[in-house]
Amino acid sequence: MTNPLTPQPTRRRLLSAASALAAAGLSAVLAGCAADDPLAAQARAGDNKNYVAGDGSVTEYAAGTRKAPVAFTGTLYDGTKVSSADFAGKVTVLNFWFAACAPCRIEAPDLEALHAEFAPKGVQFYGVNLRDEKGTAEAFESTFGVGYPSFNDKDGQVLLAVSGMVPPGAVPTTLVLDKEGRVAARVLGQLDRSTLKALLVTAVAE
């Protein structure tokens, strides 16, 4: 039984308390989501690395769902013009990188090892450098023994051609193009050598 002498909460007070609890709960959920989002955490880090490293997640695209072949003409650091039309009939790897990117340095030996293994099978590798001057890029290639060429993509022409596949600032990202020049697979972030090898074996066999 309610004691008539005890002050009872009004409807307005009850609604206010409920709203406060709901707001607190929502804030906790949002805080939890932000804390669990590694890309958001990197963006907030303020460490001046100027890139967002992916988690190495792999996306494969079934042949029937692939978009149109990529289309661009780019310039390698040695001045050679290369058109994506030249990719027809070959599996092609595009690795987006720049010299100050720590994951790019870690994965460079694996990329070169796979390049050496798959070049005899007709697979061609290209780096796509988004930021560096020629000297910086060449110093990186010399240090890590990279034997395949890179596009000087400071003007963003190659990046624009794969818009939607390579998130801005997400470096490294690696694309595997099928023999028609379509994106067959994507590795977002530092790659695993065995994973990329499996993707290349599949692409070559198609």
TrEMBL record:
InterPro entries: AhpC/TSA (IPR000866), TAT_signal (IPR006311), Thioredoxin-like_sf (IPR036249), Thioredoxin_domain (IPR013766), Thioredoxin_ResA/DsbE_sf (IPR050553)
A Pfam family the protein falls into: AhpC-TSA
Compartment list: Cell envelope
Protein name: TlpA disulfide reductase family protein
Signal peptide: 1-34
Keywords: Cytochrome c-type biogenesis, Disulfide bond, Redox-active center, Signal, Signal-anchor, Transmembrane
Annotated Thioredoxin domain residues: 61-205
